[in-house]
Amino acid sequence: MIMKQIAATTEGFLALCGENCRIGVLAREGAMMWSIDTVGATAGEVWNFLSNHGPASVTTIEQEVDAPKLLVHLALGWLAREGKLKIEERKGRAFLSVCG
Question: 2, 27, 56, 78: which one has the fewest Cβ atoms less than 10 Å from its Cβ?
């Protein structure tokens, strides 16, 4: 929600997270904090799941990857930004698979 108030730019992100960017903190859920490395590692787990099991809904990915939902969503964003996800609509639901 805060991110919507700040332009989606590198400068806006740095202004938003301040000192935390220097220590690699990307997201916080309750008392849990995740580093960029943790999000990247989870992105790898998501990619491996999709590579081995084929297209899956976000709900299925959340259930099968051993990580909190928010962390899975961050990992999906990571993969999407890197162009590693293919997204298809089937009967009004999104199904994700790896590109390639």
Answer: 2
Give the CATH number, domain containing residue 51.
1.10.10.10
Whole-structure pTM over 0.90, yes or no?
A: no
**Separation between Cα atoms, residue 38 and residue 64, nearest integer Å:** 17
Tens of pLDDT along 36-49? 999 999 999 999 99
Check residue 1 and report its DSSP letter.
-
pLDDT in tens, 24-33: 444 555 556 7
- Count how many domains the chain has: 1
Q: How does DSSP classify residue 68?
A: -
How far is residue 56's CA from residue 32's CA, in Å, rounded to a whole number? 27
CA angle 15, 36, 11 (to 5 degrees): 20
CB 45 within 8 A of CB 75: yes
